[in-house]
Structures are given as structure tokens and as C-alpha cells.
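Listing S7. Sequence submitted for prediction.
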Amino acid sequence: MHSSSMYTEPVSQVPWEVPMAGSIKFTWDYNEARSRLLDLYQKGKDKQWDAQKRISWDVSVDVTNVAGVPENFNPLFGSDIWDEMSQDARDEFGRHQGSWLFSQFLHGEQGALNVASHIVQSVPDMDAKFYAATQTMDEARHVELFNRFLRDKIGVYYPVNQSLANLLAESLEDGRWDLPYLGMQVLIEGLALASFGLYRDVSTNPLVRQLLAYVMQDEARHVAFGRLALKDYYNELTSKERAEREQFVIEGCYLMRDRFKGIEIFETLDLPVSRCIEYVDNSDMFKLYQSLLFSRIVPCVRDIGLWGEDIQAAYADMGILDNAKTDLEALMQQDEEIAENLERERYEQEFAERKGEVEDAIALGKEDR
């Protein structure tokens, strides 16, 4: 079945075109590369993996609760709207919530794929080009696996959220080479990491936990890449140039905050949109969720040197300023360890299964004698 027939509303078959500014940068300087970026490039090569082989695709998924999360994780839980729903209506909402969430993951990864390939062209340094090339492959793999998950396990796609589309366009339309870095590596990837981590940690479905953990293992490197490249560059900017980047970050964070309200779900299921949004905006669960979503972005923005009064005021307004205290290195190390532990468990399970098959074959052979 063609994916276009699986969307909640018709989507254009004409490719969405974003006019890109800037130029392709060549460099003839192949020496004096930054060891930190080359180490990251080597790690990017070493950590490549195959989504068809590494993921346990035979694990079943409950389409009414894709991640297997508690009921109170639902954005409308506790509202009059939720209380008035039948169980069938709640199940349908759960299916659409899972479809919407993983559709946005999918579209975001395609955005990352295009931005990463653009970074290869636009960044002026060879070491950064090297790493961005490995990230381009990572992003292609993420698009592949999220698409397969949506197609085979849920069967419904949602169109790209407009806030995400706007930020992608703004990141690519600006001619300054660092804007795609800032929009993609810091904002979009940072938000994705936090959202992936939240669902990875609360999900009870082994397939969902597995694919999110492995994607996060890649994404942690991507955010580290953005931090390294931008921190060096932003140290050299004038106060005016830095203020322009800070304004871009502020606008991008407000867009990303609005991205995860799930308005498209309310519209598709013909729910009272304004009442749903009002409840979501004021619910303790969403406020906590929103704060957690920025746990990776805020300390990264501070680390790369974009920490003026305006950006701190905007983060205070959004209720996320305290995230500046987050230990980003510790979070990314934890992401790496979780993925490695899951991989170890997978190998141990496969070994136990093979050992059992061998023992059964030996026992059967003895009986035949």
C-alpha cells in the first residue's frame, strides 16, 4: 500500500521545496583538523548499524497504545472531554496519538537528513564535513526505521506539523552556514532527543524502547557535533551577530513548544479544539512534559555561548530556565549506556535461543539412536 493513502488527510504528491541560500564551500586545507571532531567522526563510523537487522521487528504493537504508556500519560487524561469518551473513542484517540507522535519523529528525521547533507556542502571546515557525512547516513537510517514502524505497526500517517516545517524552512533559507547547525543540531535534534528519551523510559513495549534507544545513541553524537562546531565559531562573533542568533533560538523554541500540543489529533477526531488546547496548556502533565522536552536544548544553548538577557527571559517565560543546570554530558553518557545494555540483552537472548535449539537437536538425535 502506498503511504499517501495512509495519511489522515490528503498530502501533496509534489515535493515540498525549500529555496536554500548560501553556497557550497570547498577547502583545500586538509591539515590541522580538530581532534575532537575527528574523534566524533571515527565514532560515527564505528557506530553505524542496519535498521533491518538490529531492530526486533517481529515484536507486536498495540495500536491503541503504541508505546504502552500509563493512561495518565494521555494529554487529555483527567479532563471532562476524556471522562465523557467511550472506551472505543479512547482507543481511537490512542491510535491517533501514536500515529501523530511517530509521524512527527519521521518528518523531523527527514528534515535532519536534508539539513545534514546541506551542512556537508556549506560548512567551511573539512573535519566538520567528514562528520556531517556520517550524520547524513544516520538520518537516512532513522527515516527508514520510523517509516517502517508507522507503515507496518500503526498503519496511519499524519502530515508534518506546521511549526516543525517552519523551523526547517527558516534553518535552510538563511545564507549563513551556521543557521542549519543551530536550527537542526541544537533545536530540532535537542528536542527530539528529549522526546525520544521520555518515551524510551516510560514505554513498556520492547520494540519502541529498542528503536528509540538506538536512534538516541546516534542523536547524542549529532548534538555533540553541533556543540563543538558552534561553540568555536560563536566565540568569534560580534555582540550584534550573537544577538541575531539568540533571536533565532528564541523564535525556534516557541515554535518547538507549540509543536507537541497535538492539535492535529483534536482536529482529525473532531474534538472541541479550543477546549482541548486550554486543558493541555493548563495541565500539570503537559507542563512537566514541556519542561522535560527542553532539558537538552537549554544547557546546549548556554554551552555554545548564546546566553544573553533576552534568551534567559524567554526561557523564564516558558518555565524552562532551570534546565540550564542540566548536566548534558551525563545525559548523553546515559543514552549511550542504555543503548549498549539493550544491545547486550539482545545478544544474550539470541545466544540463549541458539543454545536451546542446539540442545534440543542433540536430545532429538539421542532419541533417534
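Caption to Listing S7: primary sequence and predicted C-alpha cells for the chain studied. The CA atoms of residues 37 and 128 lie 7 Å apart. The chain has a mean pLDDT of 88.
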